[in-house]
Specification:
The protein has 171 residues and is an all-beta fold. The chain is 0% helix and 48% strand. The chain has no helices and 15 strands. The protein has a four-stranded antiparallel beta sheet with strand order 4-5-6-7, with no helix packed on it. A hairpin with a 6-residue loop joins strand 14 and strand 15. The two termini are 32 Å apart.
Length: 171
């Protein structure tokens, strides 16, 4: 089984190829936006997948015969790097929790630290941050349910922030 995507943009389908007959079959799910890894379950009738249907990569079981998708995990973490024991009774995966926030410091007094943003798993500032001459900030964050990265404007004087883009994608 191989994962097919459109120019690394969005998951398109999983193609299962019978090596003996060279026949192939495609499986597709509209709600999955990215499939990171797949592994055959020992019974060869289903696949284990690390895939995203929103913001986070979760574990899924894909029944090949009826193309049924069943969620295994459902939380605010990402799961990647799949492995299975030979009997399929134990799944091994890497759980990835990613917390970022923006902090500011007075250049003359490093003990003046101040947390500017609050969030969880939004990769705030991870793809870019810029300080404007007036002290305001522009930064990236993927707060949308889709996981798309957007730009935000933070007013340092009053602590207010507003989005500059909406579900834009990657920056």
């Amino acid at each position: 089984a191989v994962i097919v995507d459109k120019q690394n943009q969005r998951f398109e389908r999983i193609v299962i190829i019978d090596v003996a007959t060279k026949n192939s079959e495609s499986i597709s799910f509209k709600n999955l936006t990215h499939v990171e890894q797949i592994r055959w379950m020992p019974n060869n009738s289903s696949l284990l997948a690390a895939a995203r249907d929103g913001k986070f990569f979760q574990l899924w079981e894909i029944s090949v015969a009826n193309q049924k998708l069943s969620r295994i995990t459902n939380d605010l973490n990402n799961y990647v790097s799949l492995a299975l024991t030979a009997d399929g009774k134990t799944i091994l995966t890497t759980q990835n929790s990613f917390y970022t926030n923006i902090w500011s410091f007075d250049g003359a007094n490093y003990e003046s630290e101040k947390q500017v943003t609050v969030g969880n798993a939004n990769r705030t500032g991870y793809n870019g941050i810029a300080a404007l001459p007036n002290g305001d900030l522009i930064y990236t964050s993927n707060e949308a349910e889709s996981g798309a990265v957007d730009l935000f404007y933070f007013e340092s004087g009053n602590g207010k922030r507003r989005p500059l883009s909406n579900d834009a994608g990657e920056f």
